Amino acid sequence: MENQEKKISLVVLAAGMGSRYGGLKQMDSFGPNGETIIDYSLYDAYRAGFDHVVFIIREFFADKFKEAFDPKLKDRLKADYVYQELTNVPHPIDIPSERDRPWGTAHAVWVAHPFIQGPFAVINADDYYGPDAYKTLYNFLAEERDPEEYGVVGYRLDNTLSEHGTVNRGVCATDENGYLQNIVECKQIGRDKEEMISYPGSDGQPVFLSKDAPVSMNMWALYPSYFGFFEQQFDQFISEQGSDIKSEFYIPSLIDTLIKNNIRKTRVLHSDSEWFGVTYLDDKEFVSKRLKDLIEDGVYPYKLWE
């Protein structure tokens, strides 16, 4: 594969508890032979050129997770595992006794730092991004460019909603050169009876969004400089929100701060791939059907890893 001399890693965010799904959706079966969504992501990443994966997981399901993926990845992708736990932070902090969740996706990426030496991509474990998106990411990171220019794959908002409940999305605004101007994490986005898309504002009134607004699905192209930026911003996050047992520090929040302070640029990367994911258990039937269709169309073999 081209550019193989430059080691490019894939970080898979798989530490979620699946509270709205009702279980560990990252371990659930969606393919015809018990394949998870992660299986298809890894398959696409391997074909695109990635040769290293770092799984961000929780320690309590680590053994089951490794048993599921180690045999498939042997001789394909080097795999490392790291635990996203409350206490895995840059330095000791006071943690509310009632808190049981880690510190969000920005934190999840940071815990991968012992295993990352070069450019890397980030994905969610429970999202299907499509083959072209991985090729787009890999080619961006493999190019000779300013190594501090980040990237994010953008998808149309209306193609990322669920029919079974609201979702959280990072809504992007871009300039004329295709760079992010800002990215805002909007929570509880959904459609109303008139098919208008909105989320509740701070005053409880709906904030309406364009159906073709580009949104981040947490598919990022990053460099190790990210880890230092996280450490700087995490202290402020803890001082402002650390006492809230449900507060989370999201990747878009970190990136938005870098952009607004002219510290780093982030290019929006466009992909023709289809996106779909699972937020609710009711999403499972749709996802399984779409994967079946893709297999019938020849995008994937029926038995993925043979």
Supply database-style keywords.
306 residues, alpha/beta, Spore Coat Polysaccharide Biosynthesis Protein SpsA, Chain A, 25% strand, globular
Short description:
The protein is of the alpha/beta class and 306 residues long. 27% of the residues lie in helices and 25% in strands.
Please give a structural write-up.
The protein has seven helices and 13 strands. The protein is α/β, with parallel strands linked by helices. The protein has a single domain (9-296), classed as Alpha-Beta Complex (Spore Coat Polysaccharide Biosynthesis Protein SpsA, Chain A). Strands 1, 2, 3, 4, 6, 7, 8, 9, 10, 11 and 12 form an eleven-stranded mixed beta sheet that branches. The chain has a two-stranded antiparallel sheet with strand order 5-13. Strand 1 (9-13), helix 1 (37-48) and strand 2 (52-57) form a beta-alpha-beta unit. The protein is globular and about 50 Å long.
Give me the strand/helix succession. EHEHEHEEHEEEEEEHHEEH
Helical stretch tally: 7
Shape: globular
CATH topology: Spore Coat Polysaccharide Biosynthesis Protein SpsA, Chain A
The biggest beta sheet reads: 11 strands, mixed
